[in-house]
Amino acid sequence: MKFNYIPILFSTILALSFSSCKDQLADLNKNPNSAEIPQPDYLLTGAIKSTADTYWGVTNNMNSSLLFIQHWSKIQYTDPDRYIFTNNDLQELWASGYTKGVTNLNKLVSLADEQGNTNYRGVAKVLRSWVFLLLTDAYGDIPYSQSVQINAYVNPVYDAQKEVYFGLLADLKSAQTDLNVAGKPILGDIVYNGKIELWKKFANALRLRIALRIADKEPEKSKSVLAEITSEGGTLIASNLENAQLTYSTSPNQNPVSNLFDTRDDYRISKTIVDRLRSLNDPRLSIFASPTKDVTTETYIGIPNGLLTGDASNYGLTKTSKPGAYFLAPVAPAVIISYAEVLFDRAEVAARGWSNEDAGALYKQAIEVSLQQYGVGTAAIATYTQSAAVQYEPANFRKSIGNQKWIALFGQGLEAFAEWRRLDYPELVPAVAGVLGGKLPLRFIYPGQEQSLNGKNYQQAVARQGADLLTTRLWFDIK
Fold this sequence. Notes:
CATH topology: Serine Threonine Protein Phosphatase 5, Tetratricopeptide repeat
Shape: globular
Distance between the termini: 33 Å
Number of helices: 21
Largest sheet: 2 strands, antiparallel
Helix content: 40-55%
């Protein structure tokens, strides 16, 4: 895990046309292997773009977590849908997260300190916390405390997942202190265009997410975090216009899903979610799924997860549904955290008795907001939320929130995977021809290179956490 910062930084810069300082790129990048003075706006843009691409891209989303969570399925080359992975297949999140994410964001923190711009420092901490959260949710124990000082530790230790979550909560609280609406402006922000008040809301939304991630193991800590957020003013994402997301552009900066489907045709929507949406008369079916190319009686047809390649092919490329046009569009956003998710989280906090809000009302509002996010009309929303099948069940908030949150998180494979493991809903059936003995994946396996490059610390993490297998349950997942 020894990272070469300079080539990574400049390869990131070269790939970007998002930067508002594009005209200065040639002057800055005189030598791709020898940095002169890194610019904070370039670093910020690069870290956002690279992490969003990794989060929304092929390896960690389309070819793994979206299959595990049964939003998508595979119609060709079905090994990943059967949970067949080598220890090199799931390394991109790790490699990109540390090199293009943590390393560049650490540098942004130091530049912010040099320039006396606490807003750059606060934004960097928020984004770095998100990167670390993706990593620990996927793998479990990870290098965290020593990775914040990566130049001092060539072989960083793996921190226990509990300590990572606690550390991130402290980092996000610190970020709130750094973020100052009246402070110096920032450039290169392709999420909120420099609006610091929205970064403060984003930070709190991540704190709320983590507080619930640990709620079953550390409820007192969760409640203390919620109390801190409230005492600080408690601002959270409050509309779909405030969703934390990267809205993509046209080629070569289009959404990774759009980019993949330009040249490949390996994926279909999962039969699991098609059947669920159809049974609920959910208006999002026509948004999440494309009509079959050939005329079929049902129009939207999903593929069962985990078929043998020949069995999947027999369904026919033209008789099954790709993801919907919304998700295939070049400009489709990579959603990091949405207003709907925040409302579901607030509903759960209320259901646990940790707030005085109305859990059922917040649950209903979360569904409405998710539908509005995709442009569903008022009448259709009213019909859907009044149906018996989607009514809130106070006796089992996990079931109600888990089932609807799974739908609302469609496309966000890594987050949906984490929440499914935490809430245990929906009740998914393992892949048809899965290779895990009738079990579903519960984590990513560590990159194979860790065994050779950071072997001692890797072995200690495995001894503490459990075997480096897809089926090893992580600390937060209590089942």
